[in-house]
Amino acid sequence: MILFTNIFAQDSHWEKLIVEKILKSMTNKEDIMVYTTDKGLKSLVSNIKDITLINSCQKADFILSLRDRNISCHKPEVVFDYANYLYNKNAVGLFFWQKGRPTIRFSSKRLENFGLHIHGELSKFVSSKN
User: What's the CATH number for 2-127?
Assistant: First the structure.
């Protein structure tokens, strides 16, 4: 049982680092305001330096969502479900695990619609297909 706990704790550590990198690659802001309704995502980003969880999607820089959600804000979203990424016009970025490996994708068109650009090493994950 301890082996599984260590594996999940390690995944959580990597998820936190990847989400931090994704959010910080889209902006130069010192303090990034993030909105999410998901308890797991709140826990994931709650202790990331320079990222502040807020209770208002209108004031958020980014929204994090696991699945299709009922949020009426027109804000850029980072999603964690491929179907949500395909059909959500606000989904600028995607992150999920596939066969034990992290998969990251950004939509160049959606980034452009929000006036965003990917900085640094994650720029290789920008796709012009969506």
Answer: 3.40.50
> Residue 36: which of 16, 8, 66, 9 has the closest Cα?
66
Please state, as a whole number, how many other Cβ atoms lie within 10 Å of the Cβ of residue 123.
11
Q: Measured between alpha carbons, how far is 13 from 35 in angstroms, rounded to an integer?
A: 20
Burial class of residue 56 in the structure, from the number of CB atoms within 10 Å of its CB (0-12 exposed, 13-18 middle, 19+ buried): exposed
Kind of pairing between the strands at 62-65 and 101-107: unpaired
Domain layout of the chain by residue ranges: 2-127
List pLDDT tens digits, range 70-88.
667 899 999 999 999 999 9
**Cα–Cα distance between 124 and 1 in angstroms, integer?**
38
pLDDT in tens, 96-111: 998 888 999 999 999 9
What is this structure's pTM? 0.86
User: Any residues with CB less than 8 A from the CB of 3 and at least 6 apart, and which?
Assistant: none
> Strand (E) positions, 1-130?
32-35, 51-53, 62-65, 77-79, 91-98, 101-107, 126-127
Could you identify the residue written with the tokens 């990917």? 118
